[in-house]
Model the fold of this input.
Amino acid sequence: MKIYFCFSFILASFFLAAVSHADFTGKGHVHKRAESKQEFFNADCASTDSCDLKRFTLTKVVNEIWFSDNPNHPTYANGVIMEYETATVAALEKYAIVQFKKGYVFDSTQNPRGEIHRSVSDTVASFGEPMPFCFRHWVIDSQDNDPVYNSDPEYGRFYLIRWNRPDSYDNRTEKYYGAEKPKLPVVYMADYPAGAFVSETAVRNVALEFNTCIYKANEVPAKTRRENINFAKPVSCFHWQNVYVYDFAKASFHDDLAAALQWAEPTARGNAYRIAVLVLIMGIALILFRLTGGSGA
Done:
């Protein structure tokens, strides 16, 4: 699991670089295909008793990540920046973001007869346990029992949220809220859930939906279950998707979620396959690490 999260963590660093219009040089690059923004301005704040919450924003970036050792097949991945602004710095901890997810990450192969086989081999940490990355119904997207996004059992709910210079998400200048309080009441977090790519033995696909919501923090339970999605009424929510499903006939990915609803049940894979997947992930993570010069998010 540490390898998986290292991989996701480094991908998030690349997403932040792409948002801040950075690029790779020499060994690879990120191509930003699209960027969109959803914004909530709390005009009807009296109805929710949340008038110190000024703004909630979700910025989505669609990227192709190219590596020099695989010039024909990029890694496709969507990511988001979740950002909110309050009236004062003290009011930042009065609000918390909770994200919900539905969908799965799966591998697909095609045999000589043209038959396509799908299987779920990846796992993700969910409420303190590794789970197959296959969620048929909406669940809370959290690694531990606290549903608040980016909370940590050791550091608490708010330490790992970040702040930066105005209008910047550059990971080289960002600071953790728990290490140093911002001068302006604006904080953010990033999510880069999974990437899709073609390897020598299989295709990694993603078919994921997310609902990212902001709540009054005192209405979010300190501990709950992943299925308890109706614990409180959010102030606002944004829906987004990360969908890349491979079409073997066209030899390309598409983003049609309906076409991905043929659910792949989690299946056991042999040790050789698991080792191959781990080696692939470690190799990609090493390349990413070298491209960033060893910097972390």
